[in-house]
Amino acid sequence: MVYIDKMNNKIKDLISDIGIDRYNHSLRVIETAVDLGKIYNADIKKVKEAALYHDCGKIGNTDEVMKISIEKNIKLTEEDKKSPEVVHTKLGAYLAKYKYHVTDEDVLNAIKYHTTGRADMSFLEKIIYIADYTEPKRDFPGVKKVREESKKNLDKSILTALKNTINYLKSKNEYIHKDTINAYNFINENRRSDILKENTQKDLKTLLEAASDKKAYNFKLIDISKISSIADYFLICSAGNTKQAEAIADNIVEKMSEKKIKINHKEGYRSGKWILLDYNHIVVHIFVKEERDKYNLEKIWLDGKDIDVENFGIENWS
Ligand code: DGI
Ligand code: FE
Ligand code: FE
């Protein structure tokens, strides 16, 4: 019972600090954050704690928050001083620690960065950021899209939310906190490389299917991205004879160009017994069998990572 009393006192303190409306907002953030936490397998106890206290620093209006923060000697950066709306996050992290006895650093950081985000946010920070942005009573422009995205791709939803916030702040001629900019740049950069990776996987599938359709066999797919700057992948395959090698090459070029992917260059060696198709990120080698044995190209790339083409739904026979 002592525990419940203590808990009630903390809740009473929180309500008297932030008011019943903001407390109810925090409950909705808990609800949203827990839903997301379940989707992405987060630590639900931490999620609840961070969501409950995320706005505990919002005691009064921005001037009051600023005044109390200065009184409590909370370190405010020049950036914070130029973005008074953000200061409740710093006061919040302080009160969470010293008044509500939150000890977990990750929870304290989720509170501290819930408004701006920052570069390289932790998983918990991301969940609290997006739950605060999308709780059911939020109805600003664009929130629906972010809400839907958040259930499928957390980073993508944060990027959209950050974009919206930056545009909103610009339209009001407000200062954009460096943490907001850093959060945006960091996630944007990561997303860009994720998209490139996804596209490469799609291209590999197109190539493999086109080759397989024309009876290419004995595929060897090697990820060389870590060991060479020539390309990300080498795809080697065999053909029955030169005519077949040519048919495989033609079909690859055709299917790739249907997907609007242009070839960088094509070369034929040893009167068509070895055809090379260079797509920059992927280089394809089509060999007539004897030629493949002779050059044994795969040996050169031994330290690359072998990828099973069956992952792409291709049956590989040798
Ligand atoms: O505390 P909440 O109302 O639940 O929401 P919040 O913590 O996300 O705060 C939103 C406010 O913070 C809103 O008025 C926009 C403002 N804000 C968000 N990012 C920045 C910012 N203000 C400035 N000046 N700079 C920012 O980067
Ligand atoms: Fe807030
Ligand atoms: Fe909030």
Give structural notes.
This protein is 59% helix and 11% strand. It folds into 2 domains: 2-176, Hypothetical protein af1432; 199-312, Beta Polymerase, domain 2. α5 (87-98) runs antiparallel to α6, α6 (105-112) packs across α7 (123-134) and α8 packs antiparallel against α9. By secondary structure, it is an alpha+beta fold. The model has no long low-confidence stretch (mean pLDDT 95). Strands 3-4-5-2-1-6 form a 6-stranded mixed beta sheet. The structure holds 2'-deoxyguanosine-5'-diphosphate and fe (iii) ion (2 copies). 2'-deoxyguanosine-5'-diphosphate (DGI) binds next to α9.
Question: What characteristics describe this protein?
Answer:
318 residues; alpha+beta; Hypothetical protein af1432; Beta Polymerase, domain 2; 2 domains; 6-stranded mixed β-sheet; 13 helices; elongated; binds 2'-deoxyguanosine-5'-diphosphate; binds fe (iii) ion
What's a concise summary of this model?
The protein has 318 residues and is α+β, with helices and mostly antiparallel strands. It has helices at 2-39, 44-53, 62-71, 78-82, 87-98, 105-112, 123-134, 143-152, 154-171, 178-213, 242-258, 289-295, 297-300, and strands at residues 217-223, 233-239, 265-269, 274-278, 282-288, 305-307. The mean pLDDT is 95.
